[in-house]
C-alpha cells in the first residue's frame, strides 16, 4: 500500500531542440552576477560555451568562471568554488555540463555561506543547510544522474577515499534545467552507456523493494522498457533524436524523486558503487554495472516474486514450463546480455579494484535497509569478489 507523502518538485524544465533559448526567460529572475560552472572543456569543443556566454552577456550578466569540475567532483574543488561564489557574491550558479557539474553547483550553493566545513557538515554528519543558499540553474549535456531535477550532490574526498552523496531538500533543487537532447550527441560512447546504466540502476533500486501493488512499479517497468529500447537505437546511431530524447527524459524521471513516493527503496548498488568510486575514481555508471549482476543474483531469493515480474514485464521472458526461480534467473540473464551488448563494465577489476581493496570497500559502503535483504560486510565482500 502506498505510504503517506508530500511531494513538490520545484525545478522548471525546458526540454527540446530550442530549449537553450529559454535561458533568456530564466535569467531575468536572478541578479546580475553569475558563476558559470563547467567541466573539463567539452562545452568549449562543442561550441556550447560560446552560446551560453553570449546569452549571459546579452542579458547583462557579469560572468565569474568556475571551470575544471572533474567527474566525481572533489572536496578541494568544492572549497574553491565556494570561495568564488562567496567572494563575488554571485546571484546564480549556472551549471553547464553533466551530473558532476550539476552536483557540484548544488554543493557550492549550500557551502558558499556555510560557516563550518561543508564536507564535515553535509557529508560526514548529513546535516541540513542553515545558511543562505545560492540558486542554481542547469544546462544539461549528458543524461544519467537525474541531478537536473533533484537535490543530490555527490562529493569525493580522495584523501580518505570517501565518495558520499547528500540528498538535499527542494530548496537546493535547480530552479530550472535546460534539456536539449541534441547536446548529448557528443557524449563519448563509454560515458553514454555509463549514463544509461545509471538510469537503469536508479530505477531498479527503487523497483526491487516492497511487496505491495504500487503504481510506481508499473511506471518504472515502462521506463525500463523504454530505456532498453532507446539504448539500442542510440548505440547504433548516437544522433537519433528520438532515442536520445527518450533516454534524457527517462533519466530525469528515474531520479526526480517521483517514483519513490510512498514506496520503499533499496539503494545498496549505489552504496557499493560509490565506495568503489571512492577507491578508484571510476566512472559512476560503470561502478554500478560492475556490481549489479552479482548483487541482484544474491538478493533474488529474498524478493523472488518481484524478480519474476521484472523478467516478464521488462524482458518479456516466457515463463511457461519454468519454475519461478528459473524465470527470475532468465530475467537477470537477459539484463546481463543487454549490459554486455552495451559494452558496460562487468567486473570491478577492470575499474582498478584488487582483492586487497575488497574489505576496505565493504567498510566504506554505507548501510541501507529498504530492500529485500540488507547485506552485511561479509556478503558485500562476497558480492565484490564475484565481480573481480
Ligand atoms: O568535463 P567535461 O569536459 O564536460 O566532460 C564530461 C566528463 O568527462 C563528459 N561530457 C559530458 N557531457 C558531454 C561530455 N563530453 C562530450 N559531450 C558532452 N555533451 O562526460 C564525462 C562525464 O561527465 P559527468 O558529469 O561526470 O557524468 P555524469 O552525468 O554521469 O555525472 C556523474 C556524477 O554524478 C553523481 C555521480 O556520483 C558522479 O559524481 N551522481 C549524482 C546523482 C544525483 N545528483 O542525484 C545521482 C547519481 O546516482 C550519481 O551518484
Ligand atoms: Zn547513479
UniProtKB/TrEMBL annotation:
Source domain of life: Bacteria
Domain named Fe-containing alcohol dehydrogenase-like C-terminal: which ranges? 193-387
Q: Which InterPro entries match?
A: ADH_Fe/GldA, ADH_Fe_C, BDH-like
Indicate yes or no for the key word RNA-binding.
no
Mind listing the UniProt keywords for this protein, alphabetically? Oxidoreductase
Provide the Alcohol dehydrogenase iron-type/glycerol dehydrogenase GldA domain boundaries.
Answer: 10-181
Tell me what this protein is called.
NADH-dependent alcohol dehydrogenase
Organism listed in the record: Raoultibacter timonensis
Amino acid at each position: 500500500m502506498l505510504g503517506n507523502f508530500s511531494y513538490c518538485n520545484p525545478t522548471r524544465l525546458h526540454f527540446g531542440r530550442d530549449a537553450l533559448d529559454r535561458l533568456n526567460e530564466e535569467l531575468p529572475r536572478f541578479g546580475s552576477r553569475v558563476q558559470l560552472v563547467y567541466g573539463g572543456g567539452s562545452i568549449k569543443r562543442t561550441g556550447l560555451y560560446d552560446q551560453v556566454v553570449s546569452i549571459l552577456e546579452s542579458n547583462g550578466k557579469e560572468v565569474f568562471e568556475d571551470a575544471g569540475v572533474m567527474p566525481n567532483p572533489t572536496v578541494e574543488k568544492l572549497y574553491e568554488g565556494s570561495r568564488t561564489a562567496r567572494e563575488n557574491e554571485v546571484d546564480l550558479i549556472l551549471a553547464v555540463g553533466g551530473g558532476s557539474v550539476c552536483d557540484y553547483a548544488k554543493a557550492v550553493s549550500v557551502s558558499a555561506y556555510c560557516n563550518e566545513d561543508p564536507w564535515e557538515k553535509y557529508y560526514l554528519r548529513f546535516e541540513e543547510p542553515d545558511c543562505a543558499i545560492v540558486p542554481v540553474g542547469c544546462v544539461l549535456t549528458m543524461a544519467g544522474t537525474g541531478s537536473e531535477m533533484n537535490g543530490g550532490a555527490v562529493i569525493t574526498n580522495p584523501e580518505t577515499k570517501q565518495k558520499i552523496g547528500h540528498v538535499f531538500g527542494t530548496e537546493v533543487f535547480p530552479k530550472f534545467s535546460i534539456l536539449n537532447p541534441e547536446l548529448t550527441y557528443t557524449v563519448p560512447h563509454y560515458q553514454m552507456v555509463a549514463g544509461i546504466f545509471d538510469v537503469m540502476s536508479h530505477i531498479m533500486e527503487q523497483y526491487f523493494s516492497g511487496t505491495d501493488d504500487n503504481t510506481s512499479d508499473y511506471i518504472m517497468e515502462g521506463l525500463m522498457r523504454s530505456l532498453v529500447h532507446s539504448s539500442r537505437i542510440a548505440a547504433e546511431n548516437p544522433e537519433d533524436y528520438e532515442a536520445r530524447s527518450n533516454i534524457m527524459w527517462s533519466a530525469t524521471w528515474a531520479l526526480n524523486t517521483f517514483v519513490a513516493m510512498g514506496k520503499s527503496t533499496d539503494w545498496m548498488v549505489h552504496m557499493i558503487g560509490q565506495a568503489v568510486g571512492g577507491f578508484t575514481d571510476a566512472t559512476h555508471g560503470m561502478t554500478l554495472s560492475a556490481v549489479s549482476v552479482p548483487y541482484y543474483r544474491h538478493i533474488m531469493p529474498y524478493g523472488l516474486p518481484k524478480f519474476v515480474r521484472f523478467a516478464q514485464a521488462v524482458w518479456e521472458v516466457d515463463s511457461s514450463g519454468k519454475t519461478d526461480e528459473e524465470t527470475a534467473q532468465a530475467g537477470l540473464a537477459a539484463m546481463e546480455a543487454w549490459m554486455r551488448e552495451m559494452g558496460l563494465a562487468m567486473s570491478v577489476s577492470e575499474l582498478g579494484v584488487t582483492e586487497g581493496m575488497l574489505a576496505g570497500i565493504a567498510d566504506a559502503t554505507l548501510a541501507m535497509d529498504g530492500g529485500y535483504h540488507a547485506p552485511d560486510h561479509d556478503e558485500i565482500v562476497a558480492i565484490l569478489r564475484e565481480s573481480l
